[in-house]
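quick q for whoever's on today - can somebody do inverse folding on this one?? i tried earlier but teh output was garbage lol. tokens:
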């Protein structure tokens, strides 16, 4: 095994951020982040650690942490002195004091608090295997750039390309420089055979300005949030869509999606989102993911949970938040958010229920309802991402029947990402039927609608926010328990769709189309509900912010 010396240079003086290296960064002095990373090398590879400093306050912090200090003379602490002579000085002094000769010298600057221990360890392992003289931590930032030469601004590129097509442009991060001992001299630490170790942008923050400090502290405060959700034909895609909506609002947090092997449609949709995702074939595999990821928060959106699942998750996280959960596991969660189920008698005391906790998508906060129309000219039909009961097919046939009686009405079908019968549900201009598959901005279609026929899931909240009166058909008995979709909120609820006959649906649609006064009353009831604060309430619950 190689003899490794880690040198952390840290001056007391700093003009841009006074007392930078001793100031508290997210709960502890900045210098300790580099020391704790270096200690991971001590634990795994037996590395020695020294801090080179001229500052008495820094010395006290370092010594209290049990790390050796190399006192730096004043000449080596001036602003114009580079790190090369500082590292050379520390290596000579440490070798003389210990009587040891080192094989590898690692420079770790105190200004890289976002570097991860596992990244550092892996870099040293790669250096030892690679036969290089020097390895420098870098971040790859290809960009069109310009420079000044002989008083003229000139380009640093041959051809204007998109950033992903540009050649690598490695910028040193300052996190670490690994080099062979023989390369460490008074005026250099870099040998001839050089390589770079590419880190993520998040690990590449080098604190030089107040903006860097703010960025680093924000990264260090990030929480690891695991969203366990399912998306299958029989269960629909609502769980996946809700978790995606939440994830988009958790900007700045570390997000991991986990789903089961049966959620083929969910897997496909999550891949499209480009969030990090894992598939767990069983509970054993799920526990391995939990152990590796070590989440700060677990979100379950899988219908009813059991106690065994929550107990398994509790071994690896301190906070568990469940959505629409009426299973025994709900009693063991830290919070249960049930926007769709209200006034249930037998529920955990940690339940947040009702429309106040509906997590509405941003597009419905941005889009405004259209002016009310006395005439009903646009009827929208949508039954979610999967429509497991194929209510779309049922309404497709009904609308063909309705067309001769409602010749001036357009029927707009919005079929979801996971709808299986899209080949049969096609645009039919002769019957004024128009089909839109996997619409990216549903609110723009709702804004044109005078009436909607829909299922009893989260869509009813979205319709209410847009003031679109609706006829509701539940996909199944469980969905029929969602109490928001009633007349008191601007909906006519016909019960479970598969049990409702076509004549009832036809009569209801025609009645509403011919009764603008009723539609207007329904619209006013819908618009009296406010959903703007729902996102904020739910995020605070997830992050446990009072």
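ok took a stab at it. sequence:
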């Amino acid at each position: 095994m190689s003899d490794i010396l880690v040198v952390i240079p840290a001056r007391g003086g700093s003009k841009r951020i006074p007392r930078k290296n001793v100031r508290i960064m997210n709960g502890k002095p900045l210098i300790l982040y580099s020391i704790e990373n270096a200690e991971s090398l001590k634990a795994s590879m037996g590395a020695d650690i020294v801090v080179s400093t001229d500052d008495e306050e820094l010395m006290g912090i370092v010594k209290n942490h049990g790390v050796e200090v190399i006192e730096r003379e004043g000449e080596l602490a001036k602003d114009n002195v580079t790190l090369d002579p500082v590292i050379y000085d520390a290596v000579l002094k440490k070798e003389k004091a210990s009587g040891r000769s080192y094989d590898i010298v690692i420079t770790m600057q105190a200004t890289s608090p976002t570097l991860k221990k596992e990244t550092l360890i892996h870099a040293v392992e790669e250096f030892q295997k690679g036969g290089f003289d020097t390895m420098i931590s870098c971040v790859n930032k290809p960009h069109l750039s310009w420079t000044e030469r002989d008083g003229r601004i000139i380009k640093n590129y041959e051809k204007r390309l998109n950033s992903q097509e540009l050649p690598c442009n490695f910028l040193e991060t300052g996190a670490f420089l690994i080099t062979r001992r023989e390369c460490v001299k008074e005026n250099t630490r870099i040998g001839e055979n050089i390589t770079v170790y590419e880190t993520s942008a998040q690990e590449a923050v080098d604190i030089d300005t107040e903006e860097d400090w703010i960025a680093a502290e924000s990264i260090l405060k990030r929480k690891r949030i695991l969203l366990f959700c399912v998306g299958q034909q029989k269960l629909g895609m609502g769980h996946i869509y809700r978790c995606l909506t939440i994830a988009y609002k958790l900007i700045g947090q570390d997000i991991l999606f986990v789903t089961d092997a049966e959620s083929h449609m969910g897997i496909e949709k999550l891949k499209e989102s480009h969030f990090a995702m894992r598939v767990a074939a069983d509970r054993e595999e799920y526990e391995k993911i939990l152990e590796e990821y070590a989440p700060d928060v677990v979100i379950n959106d899988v219908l009813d949970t059991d106690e065994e699942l929550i107990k398994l998750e509790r071994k690896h996280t301190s906070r568990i938040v469940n959505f629409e959960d009426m299973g025994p596991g709900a009693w063991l969660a830290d919070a249960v958010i049930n926007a769709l189920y209200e006034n249930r008698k037998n529920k955990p005391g940690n339940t947040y229920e009702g429309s106040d906790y509906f997590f509405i998508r941003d597009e419905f906060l941005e889009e405004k309802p259209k002016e009310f129309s006395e005439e009903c000219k646009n009827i929208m039909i949508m039954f979610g991402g999967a429509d497991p009961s194929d209510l779309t097919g049922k309404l497709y046939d009904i609308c063909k029947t309705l067309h001769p009686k409602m010749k001036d009405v357009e029927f707009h079908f919005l079929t979801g990402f996971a709808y299986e019968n899209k080949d049969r549900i096609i645009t039919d201009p002769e019957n004024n039927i128009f089909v839109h598959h996997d619409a990216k901005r549903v609110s723009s279609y709702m804004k044109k609608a005078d009436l909607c026929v829909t299922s009893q899931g989260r869509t009813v909240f979205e319709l209410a926010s847009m003031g679109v009166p609706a006829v509701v058909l539940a996909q199944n008995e469980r969905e029929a328990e969602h109490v928001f979709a009633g007349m008191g909120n601007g909906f006519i609820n016909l019960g479970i769709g598969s049990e409702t006959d076509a004549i009832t649906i036809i009569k209801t649609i025609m009645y509403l189309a011919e009764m603008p006064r009723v539609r207007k009353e329904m619209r006013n009831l819908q618009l009296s509900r406010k959903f703007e604060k729902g996102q904020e309430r739910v995020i605070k619950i997830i992050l446990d912010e009072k």
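fwiw The mean pLDDT is 93. also The chain has 16 helices and 24 strands. so keep that in mind when u check it
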